[in-house]
Specification:
With about 150 residues, the chain is an all-alpha fold. The protein has one domain. Helices cover about 70% and strands about 0% of the residues.
Length: about 150
């Protein structure tokens, strides 16, 4: 496993925060604003700093874990697959767990909105992750046999 470069870690975290804030912000404050307004447990004014803190933690974990699971070359598709795997883990709580805990007006609507938004978020971040970490496989051959 190769050492993680601080610039690559920072860029990955920045990409995660940008993708997440962009997609989730558009979802919550524009595209699905009425959906969220109908949920009685939602804050009128969200605490943005708490959301950013969560994004930073998640972004660091993505940045540290992705290289540990890669062997050889890394393509954009590898970033998408990894993002979908970890994103599915993270989103399962929001999509299913919260729908089962809170008195939301429509479970079906909640699952559709949260599931589709998570899919867009983790697909976009996966593309960025793959681009940031993209590298070619080292040539194989006669290392040390010359």
């Amino acid at each position: 496993m190769e050492a993680r470069k601080p610039a690559t870690i920072g860029l990955t975290v920045l990409a995660y925060v940008a993708a997440t804030f962009g997609v989730q912000g558009a979802s919550h404050f524009a595209v699905f604003a009425a959906h969220y307004a109908a949920i009685p447990i939602m804050r009128a004014e969200p605490v943005i700093a708490m959301g950013l803190g969560s994004m930073l933690i998640q972004g660091v974990l993505f940045a540290l874990l992705f290289p540990a699971f890669q062997r050889g070359s890394v393509a954009v598709w590898d970033g998408v697959k990894f993002s979908w795997a970890l994103g599915g883990f993270l989103a399962s709580y929001i999509v299913l767990g919260e729908a089962g805990k809170y008195a939301i007006p429509s479970i079906a609507s909640w699952i559709a909105v949260e599931g589709s938004v998570a899919f867009v978020q983790y697909t976009l971040f996966g593309v960025l992750l793959g681009l940031i970490h993209r590298r070619r496989a080292e040539p194989t051959g006669t290392h040390g046999l010359q």
